[in-house]
Structure formats: structure tokens, C-alpha cells
Amino acid sequence: MLFAVRMTVVLPPDMDPELRTSLLAAEKEYAQKLQHSGEWLHLWRCAGQYANLSVFEVSDNDRLNELLWDLPLFPYMDITVTPLARHPSAVG
Ligand SMILES: O=C(O)CC1=CCC(=O)O1
């Protein structure tokens, strides 16, 4: 199942700089692991925003939910999920 997921990151301005650094490093490691495993197909920066647009290919809704809840930055994100269906005009 394919899902488009938009993640907007909202970090508290007064967050401890060491916590911020470690959270961002953990987020990167987590995201790259899922990209290598094939479940996180696309990760794009929304230009000019602290947000990304991602595409996940996962077995079901519960797996997507698990992946999102385990994001190190999850407590600091606004997330919107859009299930994707095939467009009738898509080629290939
Ligand atoms: O910077 C972001 O958009 C948040 C994020 C998700 C995966 C990652 O490495 O950073």
C-alpha cells in the first residue's frame, strides 16, 4: 500500500541544543534505514519549509502507523497521511 505523508517539524525554540542534535541524528539514521529497507520510497524537502513530503510503501495501515510513531521527531511533527490510488492517466 502506498501513502503520501507530509511531515512538518516544529521544534521548540528553547530546546536543548544537544537534544536537538541527537534527535536530528537519530531521525536521519531511522529514515535512511527505512529507505534502504524499501519502505520509505521518497523523501523530499518542501522548498522553503521545515517540512518534507514522503512516499511510503508498506504492508498495511498499522505498519505505517508504527513507522510514524517510531520517528524520533514524532513528538515534534504535524503529520498528514494521504492513501494513494493509481491515477487512470498514469503511464507505466
Ligand atoms: O527534516 C525533516 O523533514 C524531518 C525528517 C524526516 C526524515 C529525516 O531525516 O528528517
From TrEMBL:
Pathway: Aromatic compound metabolism; beta-ketoadipate pathway; 5-oxo-4,5-dihydro-2-furylacetate from catechol: step 3/3
Any one Pfam family match given in the protein's UniProt record, by short name: MIase
Ranges of residues in domain Muconolactone isomerase: 1-89
Enzyme's top EC category: isomerase
InterPro entries (alphabetical): Dimeric_a/b-barrel, MLI_dom, Muconolactone_d_Isoase
Highest taxon listed in the record's lineage: Bacteria
Catalytic activity: (S)-muconolactone = (4,5-dihydro-5-oxofuran-2-yl)-acetate
UniProt keyword list: Aromatic hydrocarbons catabolism, Isomerase
Signal peptide start-end: none
Coiled-coil blocks: none
GO biological process: beta-ketoadipate pathway
EC number, as in UniProt: 5.3.3.4
Single annotated GO MF: muconolactone delta-isomerase activity
Quaternary structure note: Homodecamer.
Family named by the database record: Belongs to the muconolactone Delta-isomerase family.
Protein name in UniProt: Muconolactone Delta-isomerase
Species classification: Bacteria, Bacillati, Actinomycetota, Actinomycetes, Kitasatosporales
Gene label: catC
